[in-house]
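Entry:
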Amino acid sequence: MGQKVHPYGFRLGVIYPWKSNWFAGRDYEEHLHEDIWIRQHIRSRLARAGISSIDIERKGDQIWVFIRTARPGIVIGRKGAEVDRIRKDIERYTKKRVDVKVEDMNQASSESRPETDAALLAQGVAEQLAGRVSFRRAMRRAVQTAMRAGALGVRVQCAGRLGGAEMSRREWYREGRVPLHTLRAKIDYGTAEAKTTFGQIGVKVWVYHGDEIPAAEKEAELARARALQPTRTGAASTGALITDEREVLEEEPDVPVIPVGGEPVEEPADEAPVGPEGPGEEA
């Protein structure tokens, strides 16, 4: 049987960075469980806030929590009351200083848009299924929304008692390309669960955003291009690779010509101009 691998973990360290950035020795287990609790607590408190991802950084006794959301007003609350409440809850649990920062996905500087974010698309489909919308219509709408927003490929899958059937099954829709085996392919992956009257339905979404060349490969291609850069013929070789064009185009200094047998040859002085009456005659 085919074994499924998480698209994010498969590309971790190749094109994707870690979502938790810290170093620990003996207290690794404690930090790990704190990160799990922080993510679960924020998602349970802000279930309707459209949270895409939660990144955590640590340095000493300081914790930074970065929340990427499509609805920053719900996360921040009135006059920042909701963010302060979350920060105090995390400080009470971890006994450390906590700083919570909210990133708005609707801004132009954001990497991904809410319409092409896999986690938000999965949450949208799950909310529609809980609201008794037809699963086929919800899946088709999610695919069309992502493709219209600029995604190169989308796949949406639902599994469970679809349509209230007694036997559970799995159905999916796909449009465009979703190359799961390509490491440089930027695949966004998100899941959600819809709690319906006839059971729980799982939703999975894959979104293909194009290819990203890894940093090591970029540096190798740049070094190869520098090595193949043409230099001016006839220039003296110093044994070093010339990477600056100004060095190549720089003019050579004038060197006096020395014959094989002796001293430098002086150039003849310019002769006086010849008048109309001929040389040596005065006008």
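The longest helix spans residues 28-45.
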